[in-house]
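Justification of computing resources. Each target in the renewal requires a structure prediction run like the one illustrated here; the chain below, 624 residues long, is used simply to show the kind of job we budget for.
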Amino acid sequence: MKKLLFSASLFSALMANSQILTENFEGGALPAGWSKTQSTPSVGWEFGANLSSQYWAVPSHTKYAASNDDAHDTQAATANLADKDRLITPPLDLTAQTAVALKFDAFYTGVYGSEATVEVSTNGGTTWTTIFTLDPSAAWQNNIATNLSAYAGQNNVLVAFRHNDGNAWADGFAIDNVSIYAPPANDAKINSIALNRYGVINTNSNLVLNVTNLGSSTISNLTIDWNDGTSHSQVINVSIAPFATMDVTHPTALNYSTAVEKTIAINITAVNGGVDADVSNNTGSKLFNSLSQSSPKKVVIEEGTGTWCGWCPRGAVAMEQMYQNHPNDFIGIAVHNGDPMTVTEYDNGTDLSGYPGCNVDRALLDESVSANLFESYYQERIGLAVPAGLSMTVSGTTSKTINVSATFRTVFASANYRLGVVIIEDNVTGTASGYNQTNSYAGGANGAMGGYESLPNPVPAASMVYDHVGRALLGGFAGQANSVPTTITDGLAASYTFNYTIPSTSNSANMSAVALLIDNATGEIVTAEKTSLSAANVNELETIGLNVYPNPASGAVNVSFEANNGDFVITLTDLQGRVISSKEMTNLNGSQVVTFSTEDVASGSYIVTVATNGTKTTKNVVIK
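Resulting structure tokens:
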């Protein structure tokens, strides 16, 4: 302990002696010697505390400097007003320095084309060079660091924090705790630690550190230790230039022969074989559980959408493509906002900043939406090991009893898991104007979008069918409290029974229950399972996995489903029950795609039916 205190004190002394400029904005006004350039006194940089009412989503950070140039949106675009929003340090004398660094705290969410940068001028502000562009974050980022050594040895150097919202909506850009200093020779910082939360027994799980070199010397080796009760210290050869960042994999993987629960402590104990000048940013920890056996993983994407949202057809098209490509281990849920299909608790819990947007397993939050992005999210998540397998049974006709069970394959001394159920519905239609779908893809100017480019704006309610609509939360958004015990042993089966009554306006054949296992400590959906609520032969209907695309369709409609050694009849009928086209297929097994030509079919709403062994399931499709 004495050694640690001495090292921390030494670093504080070194920093005090190496400071060139410090500013924490506690004066609540433009600091002495600083300047700002902005379009009007009411636009741009201001100073104080609790500025969240003026600057979007900027929480209190004692006192700080913040800029929101949203007023540019209402001014003429002829003056390039955003270029004027700079907060500028006093002129800096760096003639005695050989290495210089900048550290600061920042809050910047960065949507709608806005930009937050650090710039440098050596000619009194006539021209500026961008040296750093901030990454968006939904929270304060502390100790952001960048290298100013290119300007060492020069005088009258200006550093500016610039906010440019591009004459569009912008989040507030806030800064605090600015420090310009001469960095020590050796200073490594752990930014993040990657380690999968779960791993199957007798398999390797790698620990990866994201490390930034905050020193003035290149880092050629790091001594990194991870400790689960036993030390695993290794000298690792690297090459990290000053203020560069690198992923460093510890050569000793985690590998356990039995199901165990571990807290892994991680520490950089040496840099270049010597002492790190700042040990305060050298440590971290991760939780890890080994699993006695693997369990199925399904990826859940909750997509925020609304009939008022012109770009939201992109989400509907992406969802259909995912169900087509991954019918067995992808679950998509459309969470509606501001329209007749909105479930307020679900909409609020999803907490998206823009539409369309999505959460992936509630681990990747507030992400963008497209077919390619959905695929990338799926690939990132599908290979993860999960601590339990889910099963579900459904009984009852109108009043449904849904029993969900999670069988765990590891141990927890103090678990915080919950079970929950989301009810979703396909083939949702309506006649009110709120069911009209705003369509920014109309006319094709914004490219092809699954047929929406050939539909009007808005698409009238009579031509719209909405699938995967989130209808109800059983157990609440965070899951049912006390549905999983806190002490868990390998093989434990935790069960909970949910009840749901089918509304008179819905058809159980179009509805499914999605069971969720939620890690309540993080909010993450660990895995999920989906089952039809149809009263007739639930298991068989679930295996059909019917999907119809594109929807709306033009020229042809594809019908995909899963077959299990059976004979099938696939039929396209109109709303009066008249058969437009029908195909009989025998001895089918595995994934199937059946295509109906619609070249000579009148525009309107139709029904696709897949029947086998006395059961059937249907989906609506719009043909234009």
